[in-house]
Amino acid sequence: MRPSRRTGIAQPKQVKNKKKTVKRLLGYITKGYKKQLVLVIICIILSSIAGVAGSLFLKTLIDDYITPLLSMENPVFTGLLKAIAIMILIYLVGIVSTYLYNRTMVMVSQGVLKTIRDEMFDKMQSFPIKYFDTNTHGDIMSHYTNDTDTLMQMISQSLPNLMASTVTIVAVFCAMLTISIPLTVFILLFVFLMLKITGKVASKSAKYFANQQATLGKANGFVEEMINGQKVVKVFTYEEEAKEKFNKINEELCENTTKANKYANILMPMLNNLGNLEYVLVAIIGGFIAINWNGLLSVGAIASFLQLTKSFNQPVMQISNQLNSIVMALAGANRIFELMDVKPEEDQGYVTLVNAKKVDGKIQETKERTGMWAWKHPHHDGTLTYEELRGYIELINVDFGYEPDKEVLHDVSLYAKPGQKIAFVGATGAGKTTITNLINRFYDIEDGKIRYDGININKIKKSDLRRSLGIVLQDTNLFTGTIKENIKYGKENATDEEVISAAKLANAHDFIMRLPKGYNTMLTSNGSNLSQGQRQLLSIARAAINDPPVMILDEATSSIDTRTEKIVQEGMDKLMEGRTVFVIAHRLSTVRNAKAIIVLENGRIIERGDHNELIKQKGKYYQLYTGAFELE
Amino acid sequence: MIDMIKTLGKSVREYKRPALVTPMLVTLEVIMEVIIPLLMANLIDKGIYSGQMNEILKIGVALVIASILSLVFGVLSGITASKASAGFAKNLRKDLYYKVQKFSFSNVDKFSTASIVTRLTTDVSNVQMAFQMITRIVVRTPLMLIFSLIMAFSINMKLSLIFLLLIPVVGIALYFIMSRVHPIFERVFKRYDDLNNVVEENVSGIRVVKSYLLEEREKRKFGNISTEIYKDFTKAQKIMALTSPTMQFAIYAAIILISWFGAKIIVSTHMTELTTGEITSLITYGIQILSSLMMLAMILVMSTIARTSAERIVEVLKEEPDIKNPKKPIEKVENGKIEFKNVSFSYVNSKKKECLKNINFIINSGETVGIIGGIGSGKSTLVNLIPRLYDATEGSVEVGGINVKKYDLEVLRNAVSVVLQKNVLFSGTIKENLRWGDKNATDEELEKACRLAQADEFIQKFPNKYDTYIEQGGTNVSGGQRQRLCIARALLKKPKILILDDSTSAVDTKTDSLIRRAFKEEIPNTTKIIIAQRIASVQEADKIIILDNGTINGIGTHEELLKTNDIYREVYESQVKGGTENET
């Protein structure tokens, strides 16, 4: 019973392919839980029958026992005792069945939820980066919380409830038919009326709930923005204006909430009292029949029928009560399935990375770690060749756009020989990060070729390609866990010594030792207890321990002040030694000593060369360097 | 608990009427609902069994009236309850928001912005639902229980004893179930947070996950938590699965016992003490009594959830803003002179963790002062003390020769304009954003400020110029443009003291120097404090303060410091040699 964030009532039209969603959801429930479901259905039937039997028992009690006993001189209760004994038995079966189906449903619903959660997460890990770039994080996360919550409510409660209600309705209906057909027809008409009213009120309430959610979203947005900018509000003494704006939205929200709840609140009393009205009418009609045509209906029969009327109304109300949660759950399930149906990253690579050693100048595959790696390249004719992993990267006439008609890279060609440092310089949006996104195949190019050690990277298995690349990004993402664990993300089986030496290389060792628990300090919420600069040092250490032949440093030192950077620089230089390195940096001091500096503008390479050459050219780089031009 | 309710209760205010009317209407509704089964019994006994059609009609009419009354009360209470709860939530949000407006920086830091947002939204919604539940169900359930018991007793004392027997049995069983389940649910909530955390980390860190091939590892991590949740939920709900059979047991037991003893009583007294119709109503009351009991148990569970939220709200409402207006505030800031006398400061109020130690300096009105220092040296902290965004732990900060604590807060902050390191623009047009500095500024004034901040030029290039819409956080303008807009906004306040906290880091050196020149020429009488990473930004200042680990390492002009100060020289050399002055 998680406090669910209210997602509001989904509009019916939102639930596209309702049938398909229901079918798929039921698929999860039936798959692997067939036996349990059979048990549940049997138990629900038994339990409902027991309930109905209870209502019918009253008729038997009055007509068959009390009335005859009343006329006896010396009433004998053995018959009644027997009947009651039978009832006890029926009730016991009912109680046991209820427990069994509830308990079994718990296993089924929790099992299904776990399967769905795990499957979502598994699938999500294989989504292309584009998915994460184009969907808001809050929205993705909401699949695991809000949407899964609605499913839980539905599977564990609404579904058995619905089944039980349906069985009860059928059973009661049959029982009613045995007593009086005309009265039953009358009841049917009434139920139809009740369902109509439910539909009317529910759709009104759905409309206002939608409004409420919309204003709630608006209010959330406002509060979020203002509280995040609270310090600016203080500095500008903007409090009064902020209050005024807030009040306006708050009023609107209040109005919509009132309306939405109003309709939801009045549904129950309406149905309830319609039920009462129905009861009265049945009594009057029944009484009229009993009095005028005594043979048709007995007194006990009317009493029973009235009892049945109540029993009939209850499940009808239950169903209308569950309607909202079912509509919501279907919307949730729909979103969950949409997530699951996202096309995973394509990987048709077949070239893999293996440990290798040189025997007589020829490369051979080995099992043990040799420190030498090779690309294992199977060919069409069935032969295998091995190519030593050196870190030679080539881009040939590469075109690329994140969206089909908006190209961000045009005809980019460049190469980096093993051990060279290549730097990218240019304004935001010039395409620097995009190039690195293409090398590790976070995105796939449209036109042109990228080769790694002479192999088209499309042929390389993605996991092996990425294993051969080390990346340090501007936005450092640390994970919940100790500092040691976070560094070890780069290499799972690293020893403590390796961790420490990587940290030393990144100049992170000193500050780590100053933390209360050193390497075992817990990091929470993306390392919020560290400064941005310290986080960057940790992510450099994480990359260092991985020891990849090719490294990509995307603004890896942007949050480190110039003095610290100078110190880190030594470690960085050591780290970059003998590796192919791509560097993106705002600070030109970071890129000065690169073998080649590539200046990008609007997705095109406009200048390239080393620092001295570019200064001599007196082009864009020269302008940047001398401060005559603005990057941002 | 009572204290908490008292604090929350203050927010009911103008919605007291619907809040009080609701339980009254509910009471009336309950009375009707209790009367109805009684009438129904009468209908069967006096009408149907005795074959009196006019009795049937008479009682039927009474029933219809009772039903209509019940409907009216039910609908009305539904309306008042929604009014009261929505209104209460509105006031609660308002109170929270107003309170937060009074918070000082350290109050905000204490809660963290994310947590304040959650308290203002999700927590209020939870409390709102609980409030609605309390005004309707909490009143309804015990009333239903009591009335039904009274009715049952009025029908037949002896048989009603059966209920008195069953109530404690059910009560104990439910208590047992709930008390077993509650701790498990609490644990599940925490695990849910863990689960969210893993998803969050993976979604935002997906590039790292993919680059380091952490997929399998993260799947395992997620799988483990997911399994824990599965286990806990299954355990809790298995226990919860006992509630329905328990209730059925009680209800069935009631039916059986009433049938047996009822039959005996009817037969032995020949319908004088009990009628067949009354048996039916007794059973109806029995069901009502027992299901009320179950509702009570459910409410207990639900309210624990709301209680956590309520506590979080009360925490904010009870928080005392630690920077308040003095009793007799000074309403005018004479000039832009600043003096720090033995100032020390610590965020957590502990000597050991002082961010500033024994700071002393004087800045004369109209001077330009640069502050240089490494990460965590205390630069931002120092300037935050001037407009009293924080209060010094020790020593005094004076503006215009008077301790800042003596000024009216608004007056002081209007005189001291800070461009924060974490610049924020708000969603709205450029004009709207600029007018934060001065509500009544004319278009000419806006343009003048923007020209000073070197922002006019790029604004003019936008198709909508000053009416260009800025997205939340200013994401649709570049970092350098954002910084210049923030400077313009600060200038519009026409402050006596202008503080730029690393506010030109994304602006290129040329523009940076143009801004500084404009300051010098256009606002010569304003005291200017510039925090910067670049030496070039502070080189021409009247004096430069070097901060190192919360202490002043040196004060002087560029030339003096180059000669005397090691840190300054080191920074200077790293930038000139490394070409970092071209950092953009």
Could you describe the 3D structure shown?
Chain A has helices spanning 18-30, 34-71, 78-125, 129-134, 137-179, 181-228, 230-235, 239-292, 299-340, 432-439, 462-467, 483-488, 496-505, 509-514, 532-546, 562-576, 588-591, 611-617, 620-626, and strands at residues 352-359, 362-365, 373-378, 384-388, 393-403, 406-416, 421-425, 447-452, 455-456, 469-472, 481-482, 522-523, 550-554, 580-584, 596-601, 604-609. With 632 residues, chain A is α/β, with parallel strands linked by helices. Chain A folds into 4 domains: 11-179 and 324-344, Up-down Bundle (ABC transporter transmembrane region fold), CATH 1.20.1560.10; 181-296; 352-388, no CATH class; 393-626, P-loop containing nucleotide triphosphate hydrolases (Rossmann fold, 3-Layer(aba) Sandwich). In chain A, helix 16 links the parallel strand 13 (550-554) and strand 14 (580-584). In chain A, helix 1 (18-30) packs across helix 9, helix 6 runs parallel beside helix 9 (299-340) and helix 13 (496-505) crosses helix 15. The radius of gyration of chain A is 36 Å and the shape is elongated. The two termini of chain B are 56 Å apart. The longest helix of chain B is centred in the N-terminal third of the chain and has 50 residues, at 53-102. With 584 residues, chain B is an alpha/beta fold. Chain B is 65% helix and 10% strand. Chain B has helices spanning 2-9, 16-49, 53-102, 105-111, 113-155, 157-204, 206-211, 215-240, 243-269, 276-318, 379-384, 409-415, 430-434, 443-452, 456-461, 479-491, 509-522, 535-538, 558-564, 566-578; strands spanning 338-345, 356-363, 368-373, 394-399, 402-403, 416-419, 428-429, 469-470, 497-501, 527-531, 543-548, 551-556. Chain B contains 20 helices and 12 strands. Chain B folds into 3 domains: 1-145 and 305-322, ABC transporter transmembrane region fold; 157-273, ABC transporter type 1, transmembrane domain (ABC transporter transmembrane region fold, Up-down Bundle); 338-422 and 496-582, Rossmann fold (3-Layer(aba) Sandwich), CATH 3.40.50.300. Residues 578-584 of chain B have low confidence and may be disordered. Chain B has a 6-stranded mixed sheet with strand order 6-9-10-3-11-12. A 4-stranded antiparallel sheet of chain B has the order 2-1-4-5, with no helix packed on it. Chains A and B meet through helix 2, helix 3, helix 5, helix 6 and helix 7 of A and helix 2, helix 3, helix 5, helix 6 and helix 7 of B.
